[in-house]
Design brief:
By secondary structure, the protein is mostly helical. It has one domain.
Length: 104
């Protein structure tokens, strides 16, 4: 079995696996871990789960990712973040107007 030979060949991995099993922690590959981080950041940036799934579908399951792979996603993120900044600035203007009008 390939997995068993991998575990025997890497004592550090075996130790992590044993610790994870004992403490009910999960062990992820670096690529999987970075996908989880990506999902968390993407949700914070306002992307829907559907949009995130679409973005992740173009990423290869490797780590580290080459910069050319990130470039299209960086552009999408830049547009979304700029849009969110503009929306928040407008919200700030609207709140000031509301407070001003309420005090008249």
């Amino acid at each position: 079995m390939r997995t068993a030979s991998l575990v025997r060949a890497d004592p550090e991995f075996m130790e992590k696996l044993t610790h994870a099993a004992a403490s009910a922690e999960r062990v992820y590959s670096k690529a999987t871990f970075h996908r989880i981080v990506y999902i968390t950041f993407a949700q914070s940036a306002g992307f829907s789960l559907e949009e995130i799934a679409e973005q992740l579908s173009i990423l290869p399951d490797i780590h580290p990712l080459p910069p050319k792979v990130w470039e299209p996603l960086r552009k999408i993120w830049d547009r979304r973040i700029d849009q969110r900044i503009a929306e928040l600035k407008q919200l700030k203007i609207n709140l000031r107007r509301c407070a001003r009008d309420a005090s008249r």
